[in-house]
Amino acid sequence: MSLMRRRPFVGAGGGGGNLTENITVLAAADSTFAGVGAGDGTGINPEMTGARPFSPPVQMGNRLLARGIAAQAETVCQENGNGAVTTWNEYRSDIVSTGGFASSSRNPTIGGFVPRMTSSSQSITFTPGTNVDTLRFGNIRASAFGKLGVKVDGGVAIEYDQNAGSNGYEIEVIDGLSLGAHDFEFTQISGSAHGPGFIHAYNSTVPAFQIFNAGVRNTTIQYWLGTTYPSSTLAALDVLTPHVVILKHFINNTRSGGAGTSYEDMKTHYKTIFEKCGTIGARVLLVIPHDISGYGAGWDSATAVTFFEDLLANEIPTYTGIPAAAIVNVPQLLFEAGLSGTTEPATYTVLDTNGYMHDGLHAKRAVQAVEGAGMGDALITMFGLTAATAVPTYSVTDLTFSVAAATAAGATPQGNGDQDTGTFSADADFATIDGGTDADHWQIVDGYKLSPSAAGDAANLSGGSGGTYTLTVTYVKDCVPQRVTVTINT
Questions:
Q1: Same domain for 123 and 156?
Q2: How far is CA 43 from CA 47, 92, 451, in A?
């Protein structure tokens, strides 16, 4: 195992659906990227519990995978703007936190306010849902900070002295791990240790889009604009050096009770962020958000439309140093996907009437899936990639699965619009495709399935007769998309 201070990803890659280098994609926004509104209705925050698989950045990765392009989204960022991490394990089950956390007094960095640990009983453990061999995390240093420890698979803690003579922000790397299942525990060694704003575990042997879902609840565009280390997002860009920044800060600036940012100030803020991205060579993907209810500070639906028209026509063309920029117009995509009937582009009123809004600000899963798919397609175009028309196919036969039992257990069909994720566990034989094991983490990214059921995540069966059905679905094994054909006997 080796430890490096920073190892940036470089380059893009050729066509044919293949990347030759890792591409870091920073999806920076508010609760709409965190996935609020896509939860399963349980837990402390019903709108957040289990929401991560349905959030737009993860759906973006699913879209890339379904089109035969490698993508990894095993990145943890704060889902809340307060550093408390109290709901992390509800947001995604592969996070376990112990002890209470205090918020850092520092400005939020990539992933929000970092958790402050003052006792060794406080820890955060992340177990990625796929095989990995490398860990990266954001580490801040400042005077009067303590020491942070990182344990890999319960081993001896690697210590990071955060008590710096000068403020700083670093990307720490632990690499050289065997490719497989690992867990990473972050804990206090001494003093006032500060946990990571993001945790990124990945398979370094597969060039892929490395997606950082940095959607943080309650944040505004102003969170980006500080320039002082150790934790300013704008300053941290110099260290993370993403290849693409996906920008979608808007609703908390323009909603009633929000930051109350004026039209002209919003234009200024976008210019600052775009041109900062230009200085580090990052491409920018601007997401025009879905319409909301309850604007404030002089904003309304019509003003929001005018703002983005103005931005695209009159502002962005004057920005300097931008390598490339692209637009994902969510209201237009929602119309094209049929979610708003004849209303073009989609408005909040019609989306709500059609049952696609969770509340006045946040959309349900179908909207988030359309948004994520649009972002994935935009990345394919931005990098000149050609989506693969076919990916490797493996077959397994004679799986036994009771459709009647799954239906009785409350399973419901889900289609491509939801793109649920999970490990197929209806029969152990499925996990041994291509000589693999359960640790190979096959993951559904498109096709149909029944979920959940007493037997685990199981496929939605269609088109068969006589009790025998054939399922073809895109799965991901070690972050590489594959087509799997399964014959299931019921």
A1: yes
A2: 9, 12, 19
